[in-house]
Every structure is written in C-alpha cells, then in structure tokens.
Amino acid sequence: NVRELRNAIERAVLLADDERLDVRDFNFLTLASEGEGSFQLPSGGIDFRELERSLVIQALERTRGNQTRAAALLGMNRDQMRYRVEKFGLGEIKRRAAM
C-alpha cells in the first residue's frame, strides 16, 4: 500500500542517524510484522500507565527532547506525543533532555 510505504519512509528519515538511508533504517518494519507473538504479557499483568510513561520518557531522552522524533520512535504522531507529555507532566524532562 502506497500510504504505508510513504509512512515507513518518513519514519526512517526522521529516525536515521545518517543522511543516506540503508536497510538498517527500516528494522522497525520487521519488528512490526512479527505480530501478536512479539510480546508476552506477564502473568501478573503490567501497570500500563507506568509503562507508557516510561516509554515516553525514554523516547524523549533518546531524541534530546525532540517530540516529533520521539513520537516516530513510538509509532505515533507529534500531537499524540504532546498529549502524553502533558498527561504525564513531563515538560521538565523534555526541557532537560534538550539541554
């Protein structure tokens, strides 16, 4: 599907460390195609809110506070990331990561 291809290329460009893309920049596609069996829910469950908060923090730190790139790491758009930064009160982490 052309839309999926365009989205994959845009995501790879946002996350690439170099000016040229190579096959390693598309590793996220193989992870996504593994489907249901790629993550096993622990028998005791998880605290989803805390997991989501932790992933947002890690993405912001990895991208030095760049919300667009952090959102791409998590497979969401910038508005969804901004909502979560506000939801979890992470404005300070975003500013600290940018320094």
Describe the structure.
The structure is a single chain. The protein has 6 helices and no strands. It has helices spanning 2-15, 27-33, 48-62, 67-73, 78-87, 91-98. The chain is globular, with a radius of gyration of 15 Å. It folds into 2 domains: 1-40, no CATH class; 43-99, Homeodomain-like (Arc Repressor Mutant, subunit A, Orthogonal Bundle), CATH 1.10.10.60. Helices cover 62% and strands 0% of the residues. It has 99 residues and is mainly alpha-helical. The longest helix has 15 residues, at 48-62. The N and C termini lie far apart (40 Å).
Layout of secondary structure:
Blueprint: H1 2-15, H2 27-33, H3 48-62, H4 67-73, H5 78-87, H6 91-98
Helix pairs in contact: 3-4, 3-6, 4-5
Mean of the pLDDT scores?
Answer: 82
Q: What is the ordering of alpha helices and beta strands?
A: HHHHHH
CATH-scheme architecture of the largest domain: Orthogonal Bundle
| CATH C-level class of the largest domain | Mainly Alpha
Helix content: 55-70%
Major beta sheet, specifics?
Answer: none
- Report the total helices: 6
Uncertain regions: pLDDT < 50 for 5+ in a row? none
Domain count: 2
> Would you tell me the structural class of the helices and strands?
mainly alpha
The CATH topology of the largest domain is given as Arc Repressor Mutant, subunit A
Measured by DSSP, the beta-strand proportion falls in under 5%
Question: Between the first and last Cα atoms, what is the distance in angstroms?
Answer: 40 Å
Using the alpha-carbon principal axes, give the shape. Answer: globular
Q: Give the number of DSSP strands.
A: 0
* Spatial extent as radius of gyration: 15 Å
CATH superfamily annotation of the largest domain: Homeodomain-like
